[in-house]
Design goal:
heterodimer; A: 394 residues; alpha/beta; Aspartate Aminotransferase, domain 2; Aspartate Aminotransferase, domain 1; 7-stranded mixed beta sheet; 3-stranded antiparallel beta sheet; globular; B: 131 residues; alpha+beta; Sufe protein. Chain: A; 5 helices
Chain lengths: 394, 131
């Protein structure tokens, strides 16, 4: 299998897997217990917190362990909303192509009387800092903008966006689930107040993540119970997963530049090869995007059938087609960057990593070209396009 | 568990009766691009028997498989028998479809009815012109 769906999840690294197994075998005590066996588990959790904090330029007290990206997003947004509400500020700024963990949390807040402004992400999938500045109001309590988009991989000008928030005294949260472990992030340098991350997106285990919250932001707990995580997240710590998450992030952080150079080169070849298919388009900015992300639309075909035929060829990929999700609408991300519904249905996301070979890239290009051609050969939409009954969009 | 039955995958991978009938006397197209499924059926009807049927589909795996199976079920059948084709029959012949994909079998049924309606409309016009 050629695995080209690393934005969905990644394979655990050997380092992370070994730490996870070893911790589960040897340090299975409860970190809240006072005897040595429990305290050893506690030490492992605290060492992981220190390692993770160090990598993102934070203090250990600013890291809270969670179950992953969705929980971190929920906790960050609800915290800022509660802090804002206490001061009579009930306006939140975000953008149209956030992950649903953010968008649905914001919808829930709207029902509670909050007002939400969603910034345009433009055709290139990048927010204009000037538009953020113009949207900030006296009663804005939070700006939440993702570091990198999960579907089209575009990287936002986080530093500038953070700077604007700082200047206006507004909390700035970023969902960095797709970016942590793949690009360098220093929370101070980037003016980030809160940041969500998920271990399984950077070769760590599923069910573990963290939320960075700058000193002074008192997180509201989503889960009531014991006093774990300083009362900010009740429940016995998932010690093996937390230790494995730190091991995975450490390894990725050490290799970020080296990996990025290799993967970016292959990604650019992949995009070039796929754009040679007639009536195709790259989704999102070609330069400001995650090293491993290629996302394209092919006119006249539908994404699910494309994925199934690629699966037959041993390629694991994903699509923003409605049919792959069970809904009638295609990906909100592709609609947000202005793709028409019919074009958005024919999308393909390939997210490669350093384990992908140059040979794999050529095989993917060859396979996608062949499959698109095959599906077009019996597509009534394609027939209408080539016979001039319908106008090409791409 | 796989998303689709072996039969769905077989009809998806090797769709039967794919293509166009140039001298079709019944053509039906249903679905819409917004939802991501379009099916087009071509019928050649001689002496009230469907002597040939072909389809073109833009859509997901189950849409392609449903079109393929529907053409198999009506090929060689009398027109009135073809009119009785239901989406359940298409889905059953495919050994079932996931719940949220049942609409694909509905589209297949509708495409065939649309093509039969087109045939009847055309033949009534030609009957008139014969007179």
């Amino acid at each position: 299998m050629i695995y080209a769906d690393n934005a969905a999840t990644t394979k655990m690294s050997d380092a992370a897997l070994n730490v996870m197994i070893q911790t589960a075998k040897e340090n299975w005590g409860n970190p809240s217990s006072l005897y040595t066996h429990g305290q050893r588990a506690k030490e492992i959790v605290e060492k992981a917190r220190e390692d993770i904090a160090g990598i993102i330029g934070a203090d250990r007290s600013e890291i809270t362990f969670t179950s992953g990206g969705s929980e971190s997003d929920n906790q960050a947004i609800l915290t800022a909303a509660m802090l804002g509400e206490a001061k009579g500020k009930k306006h939140i700024i975000s953008d149209t192509f956030e992950h649903h963990a953010v968008l649905h949390t914001l919808s829930a807040l709207e029902k509670k009387g909050f007002e939400v402004t969603l910034l345009d992400v433009h055709e290139n999938g990048i927010i204009d800092p000037a538009e953020l500045e113009a949207a900030i109001r006296e009663d804005t309590c939070l700006v939440t903008i993702m570091f990198a988009n999960n579907e089209i991989g575009t990287i936002q000008p986080i530093k500038q966006l953070g700077q604007i928030c700082r200047a206006h005294g507004v909390i700035f949260h970023t969902d960095a689930v797709q970016a942590v472990g793949h690009v360098h992030i220093n929370v101070n340098e980037y003016n980030i107040d809160m940041m969500s991350a998920s271990a399984h997106k950077f070769n760590g285990p599923k069910g573990a993540g963290f939320l960075y919250a700058k000193k002074g932001i008192g997180l509201s707990s989503l889960i009531e119970g014991g006093s774990q995580e300083k009362g900010k997240r009740a429940g016995t710590e998932n010690v093996p997963a937390i230790a494995a998450m730190a091991a995975a992030l450490k390894e990725n952080a050490d290799k970020t530049d080296e990996r990025s150079a290799i993967v970016t080169k292959m990604r650019d070849r992949l995009i070039e090869g796929l754009l040679a298919i007639p009536h195709s388009v790259l989704n999102g900015d070609a330069k400001s995007r995650l090293p491993g992300n290629a996302n394209l639309c092919f006119e006249g075909i539908e994404g699910e059938s494309l994925l199934l035929l690629l699966d037959d060829k041993g390629i694991a990929a994903s699509s923003g087609s409605a049919c792959t999700s069970g809904s009638l609408d295609p990906s909100h991300v592709l609609l947000a960057i202005g793709r028409a519904h019919d074009v958005a249905h024919g999308s393909l996301r390939l997210t490669i990593n350093e384990e992908t070979s140059e040979k794999d890239i050529e095989y993917i290009i060859e396979s996608v070209t062949e499959v698109v051609e095959r599906l077009r050969s019996f597509s009534p939409v394609w027939r209408d396009l080539i016979t001039g009954k319908r106008q090409f969009v791409l | 568990m796989a998303l689709y039955s072996e039969k769905v995958m077989d009809h998806f991978r090797n769709p039967r009766n794919v293509g166009v009938i140039e001298d079709a006397n019944g053509v039906g197209e249903v679905g819409n691009l917004k939802c991501g499924d379009i099916m087009k059926m071509y019928l050649k009807i001689e002496d009230d028997i469907i002597s040939d049927v072909k389809f073109e589909t833009f859509g997901c795996g189950s849409a392609i498989a449903s079109s393929s199976m529907a053409t198999e079920l009506i090929k060689g059948q009398p027109v009135e028998k073809a009119r009785e084709l239901t989406n359940q029959a298409v889905a059953e012949a495919l050994d079932g479809l996931p719940d949220y994909k049942m609409h694909c079998s509905v589209l297949a049924e509708e495409a065939i009815i649309a093509a039969l309606d087109d045939y009847e409309k055309k033949s009534s016009v030609s009957d008139l012109s014969d007179k």
